[in-house]
C-alpha cells in the first residue's frame, strides 16, 4: 500500500502572538515551530496502517526550508521517504495554494491512501485535505476517528456533532482528514533519528501562477471591547440582578 | 528499570549538553577530524531541550575571543551578534536615586564585546555543528551515568512513556545506553550528571565548595529610541542589603529590545528573602520604571550561575570522561561572563579527547592533559587572579568590592586562599535571623506589591517563559524526606516557596493544619536553584521527559 | 444575491441555519435596512424536505428554494457538492453562506475546489456589506483575529462559526415565495456509502461542546464544596470545569481542567467561581462569549476579562443564584 501523509509545520502552542509591522502577518523572528498536532496523529495512523497492511509511508509537506525539521521528525518516527515542496512564500500561503502545490508534487506517485490532519493549528481553514483530494481525483471524508482497509476499499468512522458517529465505505484511492487523539503517538528513537538522515527527501518546485483564494488584510490580538459590569448589593439582590442581565442582556441563559 | 531491554549506541565521543561548551567541543572535534584526517570519529551530542537553544538563558555580553579562535570567519557565517557594546555605565542604586561610578571597574569593561541573545547564538552554533555532520539529538536527556568501577563508559538516556504513577504507558520507550570512549559532560550549572560524578568519584570541593547565584531575566520591548543598541548598564546596591551579593544588568539590543536581569548570590542569610521579589523591587526603582515605561515584557526566565571561580573547579578529568563549561564551574563572576570560557573549555576538552581516542587510551592519566591545557590557557589567565573575589563578597558588599579592587591591582596575589561556605549552609534559621520562630512566613521579607505591568507575580512570569511539561509523568523534583511537613516550617519557613522563581513549590495545609508540599512540576524552568539552595539538601532535580522553557530571544 | 444553504437532518432544521441567515442579512445590508441591499435566497436540500421550505419562508428573504432528490439522502459530500454547485450555476450568487458545522466542513471545500472559488471558513464577524465586505476569522487557535478578503471571483463561499451570529437576530418578514428547484445529481458519481449514524457513550468529557460552563478555582476551598458548584451548574444547564489547582488536588478529573495545560473553551457562558484568573487559566477561557466572575478579592485578575463581576463570598452568592435560577 502506498500511503501519503501531509504534514504542516506550525508555531508551537506556547507561542505568544507578535505581529509584523504592517499587521498582516506574524513576526517570524522569534517563533518556535512544531508538527501540527492533527497531522502527527495522521502520521501515526499511517505508520500503523503500514504495519498492518505493508507498503510505504511517504511524508509530504509544502513550506519554506525550515519545514525540513518536521519532515525529519516524521522520517525519524518511521516514514520511509519524503517530498518537500519548498518555497518561502508557502509559510503564509492559504489552503488553495498549499493544496495545489502538494497535488502537483504528489500526482505522479499514484498513492492508494492520503492522510492529513483535519485542520492546521495556525490558519485553521480546514480545507487543504479536501481540496487536495479533489485535485488528485480522489473521494474524501473528514474528521475520521478510525480507518479499516479491506482489499481495495475503505471503511472509516467519521465524527459527527454531539457524540454521534457514522461509518462510511469508500473505494481506494481516497483521502481522509484525521481527528486528533485517535491513537497514541510513538516517540522518535535515537536510531530512528539517525536513520532519518539517510532517507530520501525529494524536493519539488512550486508550480507557477498559483493564486490565493483569500488575502489577510489585517491581523490583531482580539480585545474585549466590553467594560466589566460590577454587580453590587446583598447576595440575593446581586444574584437576582445577575440572572436578569444574563437572561435579558447577554442572552446567555 | 533494570530488567528492560535497552538499545545500545556506540560512539567515539559523546557530548552531554548542547550549550556553548558542548557545541564548541563538537565543532572542534569535527575540525580536528578535518585537519588530521584518519578514521572518522563518530560524535553525538545529547540535548534535553526539544529544540537547540530552547533552554539557553544568559544576559549576555559575549567576549568574542574564543569565537574568533573557533570560527575565525564568524561574521561571514552570520553569527548573530546583536549589537557591539558602545555605551557602558555602572550605577550604585539607593532606594530612590543612583550614583554613577566615575570609572567603569576594569572587570566590567566591555569594549570590544557584543550584546547577544544566548538562545539565538546557540541556535546558530548548532547549525554550524550539524553542517559539520555531527549527530545532534534534541529531546534526549542524560539520566544516568554508565560506569565500570571508576571508569565512565557512557550515559543512559531517560525512559520515556511513564505515567504519573510510575507505570509504563503503551508508548513506553526505554532509554538508550550510549557508550563512548570519551564522554564530555557539558550539562550546565549544577548538571544532574556532573552532580552524580561528584558523588561517585569524589571530584573535590570540600575545601572550596561550589558557590552559586540565581539570575532572573526578562526580555522587554520598549520604544526604539529609549536606549541605544549596545548600551550596557550594571547596577549594585538597592534592593539588596550589604550582606546580599548581587546586582543587575541592562543590555540594549536592536529594535527596542532590552535584556533586563537580576543576579542574587545563593548564599543569603535571610530565610524569608525572595530573589524574584528583589527583581520586582529593582524594577520599581525610578530609573528602571522610566526605562520600562510604555514597554512590554515579552519573555521571562531564570537560571543559576556557578559563581565560585577557579578554586571551586573540581577535578575535570577521569577515566573515560571530561567536564567542560558551567558544569565545571568555569565562570568569571567578576566579569559576569561564562560563555567564552565554556567555549574554550569545550574546545580544550575536544582536543584532549581527540588525542586520547586516536592514541587508543582514554584513561584519566591521558585525559589529565585537559587540565594541563586549561592551566596553560587563557582560562587560567583570566580566572586565577580573581579566584577569591566571590568568597570575599561573603564578608559583605564593601569588603567584597575592596577585595575585588585589590585583586585586580595585585593580579590576585594572596598568601592563602579564602574559603567559601556552601551557600545553602549560610541560610540562617528563623530563630537566629529574626530572634524568634514566630514570624509570619506567608509573605517574603522583601515583598512588594505587583501591578502585572511592570512587576509580576511568579505565576504570570512563568507563563512568559514558555515552559510546559507533559502532565502525565512522575515529578522530576525529587524531595527525599517528609521534612516539609515537620521541621522546615518552624526552622526556615519553607524557603523553597521563595527561592524557586517559577512557583513550583507551594505549601498547602491539611485539615489539621499540617503543612503539605505541593509540587507544580510542570512550571519548572530548569534553573537548578532548588537543588542548590535547599538548606537540608533533600531536593534532587532530575531531567523530566521532555518539556522545559522556550527561551526564544533570551 | 446571497445564497444561504440550510442544513437539515431527518426533517429538522439545524438551528445554526438561522445564524447563517442572520449573517446573510448583515452582509446584505438588510439588518441595517440599507436601501439596495442584496437579495437573499435560502436553499434547502434533501430527499424530501416536508414543511422546511415554509419554515424558512418566515425570514425576511427574497425567496426559499427547495431541492428534492433521492440522491441527497443520506448526506454525502459528493451529492451535496453537486447540488449546491447546480444552485450556484443557476442563481449566480455573489456569496454562498453556510453554518460551519461538521457537515459543511465535509463538503464545502469540495464544492470550492470543484468550482474553483474562494472559501472562507469559521467566520466570526462581517465588516461592511456587499462586494467590499471583509470577514473576521480566528487564527492561531484564537490567539489572533484575521480580517480576510476573498480573492478569485464570485461566488465567495463563507461558513459562519456556530454561535457567532444570533439566530434570534434574524429579521422576520412575512412570507417569502417557496420555489421547487430541480437539481440533477448523477447517483453513480457518489463515491461515499454512509451507514446510519449512531450514538456512542462518550468516555471523555468534551467541554469544547458545552454551551455553558461553571468553573471552580481555589476559592471553593475543599472537595466537599464542589457539590455547591455542581448544583449551580445543574441549575444553569452547565458543565462543571475547574482551574488547575483543583485538578491537581484530584478534586475534579484532569479532563475538566481549563487553561494552558488543559482545555481551551469558548462557550456562550463561563462562570468563574473563586478563580483568581492567573494568565494560565485566562488563555483557556477568555474567548467565551459572556464571562461572569465571582471572587472575594476585588483585585483578582479575573475581573479584567469578565463581562459581569460580583465581589463577594461565593458561598453566599452561589446559593442565591441557585435559588434565583430555580424560580419558575
What is Rg of chain C? 23 Å
Sheet-strand content of chain B, in percent, reads 15-25%
The CATH homologous superfamily of the largest domain in chain C is called HUPs
Q: Which segments of chain C are poorly predicted (pLDDT under 50) over 5 or more consecutive residues?
A: none
- Widest sheet: strand ordering of chain C: 7-11-6-1-4-5-12
Largest sheet of chain B: 8 strands, mixed
Strand tally of chain B: 24
What fold name stands as the CATH topology of the largest domain in chain C?
Rossmann fold
Query: What is the number of helical segments of chain C per DSSP (H or I, 4+ residues)?
Result: 8
CATH architectural group of the largest domain in chain C: 3-Layer(aba) Sandwich
Question: How many distinct helices of chain B?
Answer: 18
- From the spread of the alpha carbons, the general shape of chain B counts as globular
Q: Tell me roughly what share of residues is in helical segments of chain B.
A: 25-40%
- What is the helix content of chain C? 25-40%
Strand content of chain C: 25-35%
The assigned structural class of chain C equals alpha/beta
Name of the CATH architecture of the largest domain in chain B:
3-Layer(bba) Sandwich
CATH class of the largest domain in chain C equals Alpha Beta
Any overview of this molecule?
The complex is a heterotrimer of chains A (253), B (554) and C (328). With 253 residues, chain A is α/β, with parallel strands linked by helices. Chain A has two domains: 2-204, Rossmann fold; 227-253, no CATH class. Helices cover 27% and strands 29% of the residues of chain A. The model of chain A has no long low-confidence stretch (mean pLDDT 95). Chain B folds into four domains: 10-70 and 121-158 and 173-208 and 310-383, FAD/NAD(P)-binding domain; 83-118 and 211-306, 2-Layer Sandwich (D-Amino Acid Oxidase, Chain A, domain 2); 389-423, no CATH class; 426-541, Alpha-Beta Plaits (2-Layer Sandwich). In chain B, helix 1 (20-36) packs across helix 7. With 328 residues, chain C is α/β, with parallel strands linked by helices. The model of chain C has no long low-confidence stretch (mean pLDDT 92). Chain C is elongated. At the A-C interface, helix 3, helix 4, strand 7, strand 9 and strand 12 of A face helix 4, strand 7, strand 9, strand 10 and strand 13 of C.
Amino acid at each position: 500500500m502506498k500511503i501519503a501523509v501531509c504534514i504542516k509545520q506550525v508555531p508551537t502552542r506556547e507561542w505568544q502572538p507578535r505581529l509584523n509591522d504592517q499587521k498582516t502577518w506574524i513576526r517570524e523572528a522569534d517563533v518556535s515551530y512544531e508538527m501540527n498536532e492533527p497531522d502527527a496523529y495522521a502520521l501515526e495512523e499511517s505508520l500503523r496502517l503500514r504495519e498492518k497492511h505493508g507498503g510505504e509511508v511517504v511524508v509530504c509537506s509544502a513550506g519554506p526550508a525550515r519545514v525540513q525539521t518536521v519532515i525529519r521528525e516524521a522520517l525519524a518516527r518511521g516514514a520511509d521517504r519524503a517530498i518537500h515542496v519548498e518555497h518561502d512564500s508557502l509559510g503564509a500561503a492559504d489552503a488553495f495554494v498549499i493544496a495545489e502545490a502538494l497535488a502537483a508534487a504528489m500526482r505522479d506517485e499514484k498513492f492508494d491512501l492520503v492522510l492529513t490532519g483535519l485542520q492546521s493549528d495556525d490558519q485553521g481553514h480546514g480545507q487543504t485535505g479536501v481540496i487536495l483530494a479533489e485535485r488528485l481525483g480522489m473521494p474524501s471524508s473528514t474528521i475520521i476517528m478510525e480507518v479499516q482497509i479491506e482489499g481495495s476499499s475503505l471503511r472509516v468512522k467519521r465524527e459527527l456533532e454531539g457524540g454521534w458517529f457514522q461509518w462510511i465505505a469508500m473505494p481506494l484511492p481516497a483521502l481522509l482528514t484525521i481527528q486528533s487523539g485517535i491513537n497514541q503517538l510513538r516517540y522518535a528513537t535515537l536510531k530512528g533519528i539517525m536513520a532519518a538522515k539517510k532517507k530520501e527527501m525529494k524536493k519539488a518546485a512550486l508550480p507557477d501562477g498559483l493564486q490565493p483564494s483569500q488575502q489577510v488584510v489585517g491581523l490583531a490580538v482580539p480585545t474585549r471591547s466590553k467594560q466589566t459590569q460590577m454587580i453590587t448589593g446583598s447576595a440575593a439582590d446581586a444574584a437576582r440582578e445577575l440572572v436578569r442581565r444574563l437572561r435579558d442582556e447577554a442572552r446567555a441563559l | 528499570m533494570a530488567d528492560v531491554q535497552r538499545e545500545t549506541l556506540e560512539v567515539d565521543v559523546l557530548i552531554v549538553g548542547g550549550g556553548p561548551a558542548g557545541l564548541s567541543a563538537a565543532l572542534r572535534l569535527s575540525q580536528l577530524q578535518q585537519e588530521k584526517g584518519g578514521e572518522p570519529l563518530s560524535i553525538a551530542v545529547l540535548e534535553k531541550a526539544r529544540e537547540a537553544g530552547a533552554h539557553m538563558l544568559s544576559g549576555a555580553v559575549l567576549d568574542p575571543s574564543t569565537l574568533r579562535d573557533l570560527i575565525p570567519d564568524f561574521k561571514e557565517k552570520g553569527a548573530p551578534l546583536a549589537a557591539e557594546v558602545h555605551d557602558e555605565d555602572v550605577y550604585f542604586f539607593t532606594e530612590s536615586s543612583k550614583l554613577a561610578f566615575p570609572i567603569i571597574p576594569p572587570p566590567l569593561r566591555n569594549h570590544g564585546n557584543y550584546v547577544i541573545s544566548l538562545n539565538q547564538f546557540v541556535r546558530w552554533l548548532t547549525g554550524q555543528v550539524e553542517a559539520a555532520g555531527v549527530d545532534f539529538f534534541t529531546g534526549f536527556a542524560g539520566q544516568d551515568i554508565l560506569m565500570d568501577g571508576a571508569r565512565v563508559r557512557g550515559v543512559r538516556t531517560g525512559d520515556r512513556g511513564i505515567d504519573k504513577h510510575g507505570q509504563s504507558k503503551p508508548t513506553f520507550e526505554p532509554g538508550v545506553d550510549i557508550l563512548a570512549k570519551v564522554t564530555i559532560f557539558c550539562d550546565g550549572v549544577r548538571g544532574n550528571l556532573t552532580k552524580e560524578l561528584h558523588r561517585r568519584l569524589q571530584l573535590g570541593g570540600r575545601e572550596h565548595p561550589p558557590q552559586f547565584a540565581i539570575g532572573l531575566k526578562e526580555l522587554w520591548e520598549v520604544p526604539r529610541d529609549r536606549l541605544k543598541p549596545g548600551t550596557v548598564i550594571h547596577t549594585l546596591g538597592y534592593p539588596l542589603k550589604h550582606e546580599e551579593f548581587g546586582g543587575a544588568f541592562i543590555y540594549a539590543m536592536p529594535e527596542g529590545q532590552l535584556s533586563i536581569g537580576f543576579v542574587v548570590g545563593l548564599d543569603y542569610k535571610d530565610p524569608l528573602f525572595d530573589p524574584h521579589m528583589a527583581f520586582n523591587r529593582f524594577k520599581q526603582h525610578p530609573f528602571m520604571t522610566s526605562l520600562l515605561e510604555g514597554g512590554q515584557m515579552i519573555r521571562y526566565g531564570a537560571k543559576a550561575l556557578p559563581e565560585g571561580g577557579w578554586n571551586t573547579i573540581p577535578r575535570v578529568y577521569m577515566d573515560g570522561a571530561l567536564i567542560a563549561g558551567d558544569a565545571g564551574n568555569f565562570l568569571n563572576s567578576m566579569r559576569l561572563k561564562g560563555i567564552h570560557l565554556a567555549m574554550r573549555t569545550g574546545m580544550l576538552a575536544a582536543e584532549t579527547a581527540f588525542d586520547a581516542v586516536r592514541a587508543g587510551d582514554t584513561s584519566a592519566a591521558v585525559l589529565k592533559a585537559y587540565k594541563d591545557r586549561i592551566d596553560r590557557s587563557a582560562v587560567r589567565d583570566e580566572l586565577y587572579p580573581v579566584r577569591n573575589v566571590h568568597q570575599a563578597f561573603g564578608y559583605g558588599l564593601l569588603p567584597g568590592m575592596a577585595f575585588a579592587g585589590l585583586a585586580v591591582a595585585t593580579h590576585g596575589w594572596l598568601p592563602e586562599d579564602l574559603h567559601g561556605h556552601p551557600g545553602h549552609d549560610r541560610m540562617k534559621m528563623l530563630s537566629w535571623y529574626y530572634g524568634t520562630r514566630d514570624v509570619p512566613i506567608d509573605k517574603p521579607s522583601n515583598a512588594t506589591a505587583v501591578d502585572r505591568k511592570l512587576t509580576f507575580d511568579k505565576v504570570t512570569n512563568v507563563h512568559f517563559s514558555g515552559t510546559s511539561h507533559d502532565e502525565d509523568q512522575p515529578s522530576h523534583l525529587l524531595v527525599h524526606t517528609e521534612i516539609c511537613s515537620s521541621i522546615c516550617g518552624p526552622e526556615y519557613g519553607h524557603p523553597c516557596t521563595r527561592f524557586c522563581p517559577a512557583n513550583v513549590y507551594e505549601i498547602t495545609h491539611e485539615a489539621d493544619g499540617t503543612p503539605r508540599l505541593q509540587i507544580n512540576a510542570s512550571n519548572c524552568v530548569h534553573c537548578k536553584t532548588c537543588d542548590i539552595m535547599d538548606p537540608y539538601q533533600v531536593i534532587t532535580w532530575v531531567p523530566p521527559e521532555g518539556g522545559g522553557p522556550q527561551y526564544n530571544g533570551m | 444575491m446571497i445564497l444561504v444553504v440550510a442544513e437539515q437532518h431527518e426533517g429538522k432544521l439545524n438551528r445554526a441555519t438561522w445564524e447563517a441567515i442572520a449573517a446573510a442579512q448583515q452582509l446584505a445590508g438588510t439588518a441595517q435596512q440599507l436601501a439596495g441591499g442584496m437579495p437573499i435566497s435560502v436553499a434547502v436540500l434533501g430527499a424530501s424536505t416536508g414543511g422546511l421550505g415554509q419554515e424558512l419562508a418566515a425570514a425576511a428573504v427574497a425567496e426559499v428554494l427547495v431541492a428534492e432528490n433521492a440522491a441527497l439522502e443520506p448526506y454525502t459530500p459528493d451529492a451535496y457538492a453537486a447540488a449546491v454547485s447546480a444552485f450556484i450555476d443557476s442563481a449566480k450568487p455573489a456569496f454562498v453562506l453556510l453554518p460551519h458545522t461538521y457537515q459543511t466542513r465535509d463538503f464545502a471545500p469540495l464544492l470550492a475546489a470543484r468550482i474553483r472559488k474562494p472559501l472562507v471558513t469559521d467566520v466570526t464577524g462581517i465588516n461592511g456589506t456587499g462586494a467590499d465586505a471583509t470577514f473576521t476569522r480566528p487564527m492561531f487557535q484564537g490567539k489572533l483575529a484575521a480580517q480576510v478578503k476573498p480573492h478569485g471571483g464570485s461566488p465567495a463561499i463563507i461558513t459562519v462559526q456556530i454561535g457567532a451570529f444570533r439566530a434570534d437576530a434574524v429579521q422576520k418578514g412575512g412570507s417569502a415565495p417557496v420555489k421547487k428547484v430541480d437539481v440533477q445529481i448523477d447517483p453513480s458519481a457518489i463515491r461515499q456509502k454512509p451507514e446510519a449514524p449512531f450514538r456512542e457513550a462518550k468516555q471523555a468529557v468534551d467541554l469544547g461542546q458545552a454551551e455553558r460552563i461553571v468553573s471552580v478555582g481555589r476559592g471553593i476551598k475543599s472537595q466537599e464544596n464542589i457539590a455547591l458548584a455542581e448544583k449551580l451548574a445543574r441549575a444553569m444547564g452547565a458543565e462543571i470545569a475547574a482551574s488547575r489547582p483543583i485538578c491537581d488536588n484530584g478534586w475534579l478529573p484532569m479532563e475538566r481542567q481549563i487553561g494552558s495545560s488543559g482545555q481551551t473553551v469558548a462557550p456562550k457562558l463561563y462562570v468563574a467561581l473563586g478563580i483568581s484568573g492567573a494568565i494560565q487559566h485566562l488563555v483557556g477561557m477568555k474567548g467565551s462569549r459572556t464571562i461572569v466572575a465571582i471572587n472575594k478579592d476585588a483585585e483578582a485578575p479575573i475581573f479584567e476579562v469578565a463581562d459581569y463581576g460580583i465581589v463577594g463570598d461565593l458561598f453566599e452568592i452561589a446559593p442565591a443564584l441557585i435559588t434565583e435560577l430555580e424560580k419558575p
